[in-house]
């Protein structure tokens, strides 16, 4: 199978081809994953190497991004709580904002922006060097050999990163409330434990896995369909980042709405 799309006859036709090609490519990759696992053909060594690579390039920026976000949340919550006379409920707001939304979105930004661009640049470079065609000529399944390890790595790193970022965000808010706002750490932790739910954290992990899967599929699709030399690879990377950002925010909205329907908020009438 040679990766490429038919010539477009206009912007709308090109958009339709891109969307259709991405859906077909995603379906083929998702079907290939269990088949390769059953046959014992998953390249685990490549998956481990890609996991280490993505963890190395995404962890630092994610923590650096989460620290100011945690401070911003703490400042906003502290200011609003002080006006309402409810400074002790800052832990509840932190549980809702950091655990429920912010941590997974930070992972989405890292996987889409940093991890996705790296995956697309790697596969795009292999495409323009005709390495992909050479693998296909030798009868090697490119999806099993190159795409599945990157999908596995993106999902694993995204979930691990979400847990790490959640811990960093909560600690940042706690330290800010205690040492800057001079609030009680006991009140913060009490409201955090009272309003924070295990289902919120579980949903954040599921969101992170979905973001990693989405970003890896988009990046692999754009990388394998890169054309036009190095400038074409650069265009594919830019398109990957923009498209991944848009899609992961749509996925986040859908999953958040489903969660609010399935799991009512504390105190809500079920």
UniProtKB/TrEMBL annotation:
Keywords: Membrane, Transmembrane, Transmembrane helix. PANTHER family: ABC TRANSPORTER PERMEASE PROTEIN-RELATED, PROTEIN TRIGALACTOSYLDIACYLGLYCEROL 1, CHLOROPLASTIC. InterPro entries: Permease_MalE. This is ABC transporter permease. The chain crosses the membrane at residues 15-33, 53-75, 95-121, 151-179, 201-221, 241-262. One of its GO terms (molecular function) is phospholipid transporter activity. The keyword Transmembrane helix applies. GO terms for cellular component: ATP-binding cassette (ABC) transporter complex. Signal peptide: none annotated.
């Amino acid at each position: 199978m040679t990766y490429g799309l038919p010539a477009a006859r206009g912007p709308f036709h090109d958009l339709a081809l891109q969307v259709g090609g991405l859906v077909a490519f995603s379906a083929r990759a998702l079907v290939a994953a269990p088949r390769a696992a059953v046959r014992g053909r998953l390249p685990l060594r490549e998956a481990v190497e890609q996991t280490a690579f993505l963890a190395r390039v995404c962890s630092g920026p994610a923590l650096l991004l989460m620290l100011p976000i945690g401070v911003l949340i703490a400042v906003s919550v502290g200011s609003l709580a002080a006006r309402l006379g409810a400074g002790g409920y800052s832990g509840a707001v932190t549980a809702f904002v950091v655990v429920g939304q912010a941590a997974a979105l930070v992972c989405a930004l890292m996987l889409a922006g940093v991890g996705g661009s790296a995956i697309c640049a790697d596969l795009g470079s292999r495409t323009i060097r005709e390495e992909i065609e050479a693998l296909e000529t030798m009868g090697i399944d490119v999806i099993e050999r190159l795409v599945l390890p990157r999908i596995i790595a993106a999902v694993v790193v995204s979930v691990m990163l979400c847990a790490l970022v959640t811990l960093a965000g909560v600690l940042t808010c706690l330290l800010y409330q205690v040492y800057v706002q001079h609030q009680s750490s006991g009140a913060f932790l009490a409201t955090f434990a009272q309003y924070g739910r295990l289902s919120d954290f579980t949903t954040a992990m599921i969101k992170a896995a979905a973001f990693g899967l989405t970003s890896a599929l988009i990046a692999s699709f754009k990388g394998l369909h890169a054309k036009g030399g190095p400038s074409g690879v650069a265009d594919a990377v830019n398109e990957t980042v923009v498209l991944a950002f848009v899609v992961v925010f749509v996925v986040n909205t859908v999953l958040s709405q489903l969660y609010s329907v399935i799991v009512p908020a504390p105190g809500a009438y079920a």
